From TrEMBL:
GO terms for molecular function: hydrolase activity, hydrolyzing O-glycosyl compounds; metal ion binding; oxidoreductase activity, acting on the CH-OH group of donors, NAD or NADP as acceptor. Binds 1 NAD(+) per subunit. This is 6-phospho-beta-glucosidase. Belongs to the glycosyl hydrolase 4 family. The active site is at residues 171, 266. It comes from the Bacteria. Mn(2+) binds at residues 170, 200. It comes from Anaerocolumna aminovalerica. The record marks 109 as: Increases basicity of active site Tyr.
């Protein structure tokens, strides 16, 4: 069986050990010849690599692991590239969250002004990554992209690198499917879902198991409890932190008002924004929770290893994040035509949305990429919300390409999370100062 060369771009991410565990759990079906970690922060990557190498030692000691900050070394002849870059790291994520909150506006890493700030930091580094991969990698490579904000990245790459061999994915729909499966006592892999929207901005319309429609069961539970079950730690440790418990609970309130479809949890930032702000501590946001939680666990484990030569790998769970990206890669590698929710250019799949919108819908994943499944027409309320959000994403991409302050201001003003153009301008001006050196210059 052919063995693959796979590179993780963003090897210094705290998600890397979990992704590697997921890869090695499928080592018989998806064997690797070489695993490479690539990051522009070599010091951070080397620390994370200590854990990665221990994972490899336990599960696949024969696998060659290479860490590098050199793109030619990283990508030469690589067949798969898992991209998970975080430009500005968690210190800039903290600014994305806290600056809008100071103005009474949702502070979140992928939604609202914070998401647009993150997008402006990520667009050109992602284009640069694509260029490096195309220069050095196997011509039939695939980039499987987890880098956020995925909707903005997908829209930008459609314009800047339209021929890139990239598939943009997000684990949030899969995590939601996992919770729905727990609600009805089924394996998540047995659920087949219908869904439409943009990334972090969509709705589940139907859920079947073995051909039987289970949507009403999930809907009734969600109206009463959100997508919480009694013990969330048994569902997935990754999404059972206190802030995530709130997120799953908030689905209840959206379902009480709009019961037809089951919302992606991130819709709370657009539909329940005032409540979200009211219950958020501007001094301690999700960025702080991550730095004090997952990030601290990784670097504490590195310190422990340096002291004792031992590390407890059980704390580095796999979860749906790692499993999903591996499943997508396998479907690409072996033409499995598995059905997943991914981001694709609409091209009529959702009949009454713009043709060029980067929608998130079901698709069969083949060796030639995704084959979207047609959704048909969607109702007015959802269509209007999606068109507004798509206009926001399109404007922020145009702002980056054209170096346009006005279009960036338009994007923030149009965001459903921002109450007025006055607020949008105040937030934008402060974000410009905070992102000096990261953003394209806006004139």
């Amino acid at each position: 069986m052919h063995k693959f060369i796979l590179t993780i771009a963003g090897g210094g991410s705290t998600y890397t050990p979990g992704i590697v565990k997921s890869l090695l759990a499928k080592k018989e079906e998806f064997p690797l010849k070489e695993l490479r970690l690539y990051d522009n922060d070599g010091d951070r990557q080397e620390k994370v690599a200590i854990i990665v190498k221990e994972v490899v030692k336990e599960f696949a000691p024969e696998l060659k692991v290479l860490t590098t900050t050199d793109p030619e070394t990283a990508f030469s002849d690589a067949e798969f590239i898992f991209a998970q870059m975080r430009v500005g790291k968690n210190s800039m994520r903290e600014q994305d969250e806290k600056i809008p909150l100071r103005y009474g506006v949702v502070g979140q890493e992928t939604c609202g002004p914070g998401g647009l700030a993150y997008g402006l930091r990520t667009i050109y580094p992602m284009a640069e990554l694509i260029d490096l991969v195309e220069k050095y990698a196997n011509p039939k490579h695939w980039i499987v992209n987890y880098s956020n904000p995925a909707a903005v990245v997908a829209e930008a790459m459609k314009k800047l690198r339209p021929n890139a061999r990239i598939i943009n994915i997000c684990d949030m729909p899969v995590a939601t499917i996992r919770n729905m499966a727990a609600v009805i006592g089924e394996d998540r892999n047995k659920l087949v879902v219908d869904y439409f929207g943009l990334n972090h901005f969509g709705w589940f319309t139907k859920v079947t198991v073995d051909g039987v429609d289970r949507t009403d069961e999930i809907r009734k539970h969600a109206i009463k409890h959100g997508l919480l079950v009694e013990d969330m730690t048994k569902v997935d440790a990754q999404h059972s932190d206190p802030s995530w418990i709130k997120n799953w609970k908030n689905i209840q309130y959206m379902m009480e008002m709009f019961p037809d479809y089951i919302p992606n949890p991130y819709l709370q930032y657009y539909l329940l924004g005032d409540s979200i702000v009211e219950h958020t501590n501007v001094e301690h946001t999700r960025a702080n929770e991550v730095m004090e939680g997952r990030e601290k666990r990784i670097f504490d484990a590195v310190d422990e290893y340096n002291r004792t030569g031992e590390v407890d790998l059980s704390s580095f769970y796999t979860g749906v994040h790692g499993q999903f990206i591996v499943d997508v890669a396998m479907s690409l590698a072996y033409n499995l035509r598995k059905r997943f929710l991914v981001m694709v250019e609409n091209k009529g799949a959702v009949m009454n949305l713009p043709e060029d919108a980067m929608v998130e819908i079901p698709a069969y994943i083949t060796s030639d990429g995704p084959e979207p499944i047609r959704v048909g027409e969607i109702p007015t309320f959802y269509k209007a919300l999606i068109e507004q959000q798509y206009a926001v994403e399109k404007l922020i991409v145009e702002a980056a390409i054209e170096h346009s302050y006005t279009k960036a201001l338009m994007a923030l003003t149009l965001s459903k999370t921002v109450p007025s153009a006055f607020k949008a301008k105040e937030i934008l001006d402060e974000l410009i100062k905070a992102n000096k050196g990261y953003w394209p210059e806006l004139n």
